[in-house]
Known about the structure:
Largest sheet of chain A: 6 strands, mixed
CATH class of the largest domain in chain A: Alpha Beta
Subcellular location (chain B): Cell membrane
Helix content of chain A: 25-40%
Strand order of the largest sheet of chain A: 6-7-8-3-9-10
InterPro entries (chain B): BPD_transp_1_N, MetI-like, MetI-like_sf
Number of domains of chain A: 2
CATH architecture of the domain at 87-263 in chain B: Orthogonal Bundle
Shape of chain B: globular
CATH class of the domain at 87-263 in chain B: Mainly Alpha
CATH topology of the domain at 87-263 in chain B: MetI-like fold
Strand content of chain B: under 5%
Structural class of chain A: alpha/beta
CATH superfamily of the domain at 87-263 in chain B: MetI-like
Strand content of chain A: 25-35%
Number of strands of chain A: 20
Domain ABC transmembrane type-1 (chain B): 94-292
Distance between the termini of chain A: 31 Å
Transmembrane segments (chain B): 12-30, 100-121, 133-158, 174-192, 231-253, 273-296
Order of helices and strands of chain B: HHHHHHHHHHHHHH
CATH superfamily of the largest domain in chain A: P-loop containing nucleotide triphosphate hydrolases
Number of helices of chain A: 19
Largest sheet of chain B: none
Radius of gyration of chain A: 25 Å
Organism (chain B): Dasania phycosphaerae
Oligomer: heterodimer
Amino acid sequence: MALLEVNNLTVSFHTRNGVVKAVNNISFTIDKGETLAIVGESGSGKSVSCYSLLNLIPKPPGKIESGTALFSGHDLLSMDEAALRRIRGSDIAMIFQDPMTSLNPFLTVGEQLIEPLVYHRSYSRTEAAQRAIAVLDEVGIKNPAAAYEQYPHQFSGGMRQRVMIAMALITEPKLLIADEPTTALDVTIQAQILALIKELQQRHNIALLFISHDLAVVSDIADKVLVMYQGDQVEQGSRDEVFKHSQQAYTQKLLASIPSGAKVGGEAKSANALLQVSGLKTYFASRSGSWFKRKKNLNKAVDDVSFTINRGEIVGLVGESGSGKSTVGRSLLQLLPVTAGSIRFDDQELVGMPAKSLKTMRRRMQMIFQDPYASLNPRMTVFDTLAEPLLLHGLATKKTVHEQVLMLLDDVGLARSSLRKYPHEFSGGQRQRIAIGRAIATKPELIIADEPVSALDVTIQAQILSLILELVEKHNLTMLFISHDLSVVRSLCDRVLVMHHGHLVEQGDTEAIYQQPQHPYTQGLLSAIPLLE
Amino acid sequence: MLKFISGRLLQAIPVLFIVITATFFLIHSAPGGPFSADRAVPAQVIKALNARYHLDQPVWQQYLTYLGDLAQGDFGPSFKFPGRSVNEMIFGSLGTTAELGLYAMLVAVIIGVLAGVVAALKPNTAQDYVPMSVAMVGICMPSFLLGPLLVLVFGIYLEWLPISGWGDIPGDKILPAITLGASYAAYIARLSRGGMLEVMTQDYIRTARAKGLPEHIVIIKHALRGGLMPVIAFLGPAFAGLLAGSFVVETIFQIPGLGRFYVQAAFNRDYTMIMGTTIFFSVTIILFNLLSDILATWINPKLRHQSGGAES
């Protein structure tokens, strides 16, 4: 008998705008020690189906319409809340996507760790503490006894996810549900956490239900794969069946959307420098120390960075979170005060340029941001958003602006009829198209794109990337493409800059760096990328 | 932290100076004086009184003299109660007002937090609408209306509780405490509902549930601390407001507290007494605001350590 057997699970959300079927007739089984991955894009129902098993979806509006979920022979879906609570955190444990918000900031790590033992296994606090420290040690936390007393904010993201894993495994569950456990982490940390999950799973013979949007990660960890799309099961099978011999069009599209390999058609670019950065330093003052002993620290976010971008090039700037790559982007546009160094754009020095001349320069350098939800003004229509820079920089008159905005919509592939719509009426990908339209409205020469596709699903990401390539070609743009995703950078960029702790550790032609990285940090970074086998 | 506290105390100095100056010139520009209301007093007696209290001097000179005395911690003599100093009168009646304020605060916090949390657990149901509607009424109803209403119902019709006094008959402290605390209870209820609603959607609440914790543990241990942060930030200003706002309740229930002296002093043009109580209340408000800021910082471990970034 399978450890978990889910039959015909259907979950819907009853909202004011009608009934939305989030999960439609899903069935799967997991055996002891086995790993089933559920993959799909956002809104595919992969998380809802797992949360429903433990009655963790908000009800109302959520409602489990039908189905059974037999766990060791007992139906989780028809169980009363008290019985289900004895299984949650005891026989079935969960880890979540965002370790930064999934731990209670007001309680010590230890206090949170021992709770499952105290409530499910009737441990005394002392016994539980001993076990907790042992588990912290097992998940690779240095000095576990000290960590036990600390608060979550004293840990980095990767360490917090280790704590989450320790918390989930402390009762030695039979089934672990991991909901995008590495999505919020840097690629090197992701590799460590995945290795840790795999190792612990094997050692304790735990079944793993792994939810992810990242096919490369899934191909690395799963025995069986279930592909979901808009609440429906697209297909299900062994890893090889799904990844190598899929007959389903959607699965093939998903696989094809993953950026892989080198940039196609990267002909040689001119050596005509558009942007020359030398000795760029951007420091932030921060405070630390206890309440009574304050120290002033200098956070050297960007420390002595020099590079050149030639006209027509797409240059990738890669690094992990906190490496200073976004700070570089903002410093270039003078959105942040630069501590020292020189930034020459088309042979004019930007550092220390008076505000008035800077305004004309800004027309020629535009920025695209990561989060298309937050970076568009929700109270401005598409027309207002796109017309504003045109009118502000005097590139359009009241008469011509309407026509020019329509041209922009054509450029970024949005319907002309969406002119009067507001940002909330669009999907994430469409919003990013609006943001790109806003950036190219002023006919800039340089675009700084800060993680423009990392909030998007993989199929949408592929569309936006091809749009970017098309626009760069058409308008003869130069681009600094900031990203943590090394595969995306490889498929898009001519040259790459690698940042680590505020320093530029390596730069060169994309393929040269990907084939033969020189700096140990770049080597580590590249080997951590999960690849489709 | 010390820097933060001393900075805030330094900021208080100009605030107090403005309060003192504005109050001083306002009350001196109001018509009448401390001795003008008395009937049939011979002119030379008034003149002698004015001379004795330096009221015959120009206002700016009186102002300077007052500042000088104040710098030495002396609020001066009361004009209306001969032989008693303002210091004596403030600290003599402060105890009563503080006690009233404390009870009112307890009423406000207990009722407010309970109502707010109960409402937040089932948002947009009767369990939410009923306490929140009552809270809305509570915020709207001034204490000079609520006090007499409570007296009418519980004192006169039901005859359950005494209708006035302080510490004379058992139970005579209940109605004043409720009257004073009611509007703050209502406000705290709304704050704790908002705070709890936000916290209950946090990821770490989902984590707590996924651990299989009983719902009451999830609420009390995991949600309450974060959910009550807005309430804690409000406690300082609320307590200062309770003290300063107590005069209405003290007047309604005939309580010999500081608030009543304040009102009497204003009617009597008891210049020094008005100044003394105003300054005292200003200092209280500033101090309690500071206290609640310190408390809010202390409760949040992240702010408490400020260790800056990851260490592991």
